[in-house]
Structures are given as C-alpha cells and as structure tokens.
Write a structure and sequence with these properties.
With 192 residues, the chain is mainly alpha-helical. It has one domain. Helices cover 63% and strands 2% of the residues. The chain has twelve helices and two strands, in the order H-H-H-H-H-E-E-H-H-H-H-H-H-H. A hairpin with a 2-residue loop joins strand 1 and strand 2. The longest helix has 28 residues. The relative contact order is 0.14.
Length: 192
C-alpha cells in the first residue's frame, strides 16, 4: 500500500515528504550510531542468538505507519522486495518476521524497535559506560518531537498525506489510536 501511495505522488509531493523528514533522519542517524556503539552486540546475543529476550518476538513491537513510509522513501526497491517477501512468507514463527541472522531487514527500523531495550541490555551497557545513560534518556525523549501529537508532528503529517489520498491502515496510530487521538484533541482544544 505504501509503495502504491508513494508511486501516486507527484515529484513535488514526494519532495515535500522528503524535506519534512530531514530533521528526523538526522535524529535517527544519531540514535542508530548510539545504539550500534552501546547495544548492538548485547542485543544480537540476547535477542537473536540466545532467544533470551522478548524484544524481537513475533508480536513484540508495534510499528507506526510513518515508520513504513519513511523506510520506503529511503530504501532501494530490492530492500522493499525483501520486506514484502518476509511479510508473505515469514522465516521464523517465533521471531519478528523482519529479523534475520544478518540483522533487521528494514533500512530504517521502526522507532519503537530502535528504542525498545530489555532491562538486562540497559544494565549491561550502562554498567560498562555509565555516562551513556543520560544520552540514551535524551534520545528517548527526542522521539516525542516526531511521534507524540501534543503538537503537530512528522508521524501525524505522514499519516495525513496517505489518509488524504484515501489510504487507511491499522498502523495509523496517531489518527486512530484512542489514546493518541485524545492527545490531539486536547492540543486542538477539543472535547475529550
């Protein structure tokens, strides 16, 4: 659906989407670098190799529709084909369908995946690098600039672009999740 929707955009519309994502992509680069430096080895061992954590279980992570749009805009067609293949024919029924021995199939992982860490991973990483904890908490807080609709946010905008074109998805949490809709209504001065 996202690929179809993106293909229907004019070059000006696609350009506006990409421009709107610039700051978010910078944030994600910083977050990815931090995660890779502090958590990659720990998470690879606990989640994939040993199966000790539920972080990457089949239904353990909830993606936003905007995650899909952003990933589609920055991914090569072959990468999107692999994602679609994983959806159609999951490799492992107990794990996230996008997690492979080589890592995640997403070019830019869903934000919840990047920020969701089990307590054991955090304890180990921050025991080794105690000064990293405040940086991690700051990166977690910055996520709200893009996903928390107490003000107009990128994820809301990306959903709205597709809604305006007639697309609907259960992943459009900002427009359809009762909790996030309530936050939007409070922002807009509407009734709860």
């Amino acid at each position: 659906m996202v690929r179809e929707g993106l293909a229907s955009l004019s070059s000006a519309e696609a350009g506006r989407l990409k421009k709107a994502m610039t700051d978010y992509l910078d944030y994600r680069q910083t977050l990815t670098e931090f995660w890779a430096a502090r958590f990659r080895d720990i998470c690879t061992e606990k989640c994939f190799q040993n199966g000790l954590s539920a972080c990457c279980s089949k239904d353990g992570i909830i993606a936003f529709f905007a995650d899909v749009v952003i990933n589609a805009l920055v991914s090569a067609p072959a990468a999107l084909d692999r994602l679609e293949g994983a959806i159609r024919q999951p490799d492992r029924p107990d794990k996230c369908i996008f997690l492979t021995p080589e890592g995640c199939l997403w070019t830019i992982k869903p934000i919840v995946c990047e920020l969701f860490l089990c307590d054991a991973a955090k304890e180990k990483a921050f025991a080794e690098h105690p000064r990293a904890r405040p940086n991690w908490e700051h990166l977690r807080e910055l996520k709200k600039r893009y996903t928390w609709p107490d003000q107009p946010v990128l994820f809301e905008y990306l959903e709205a672009v597709f809604l305006d074109k007639g697309y609907r998805s259960s992943l459009m949490h900002i427009h359809f999740s009762p909790g996030l809709r309530r936050i939007k209504q409070q922002r807009e001065g509407g009734a709860q």
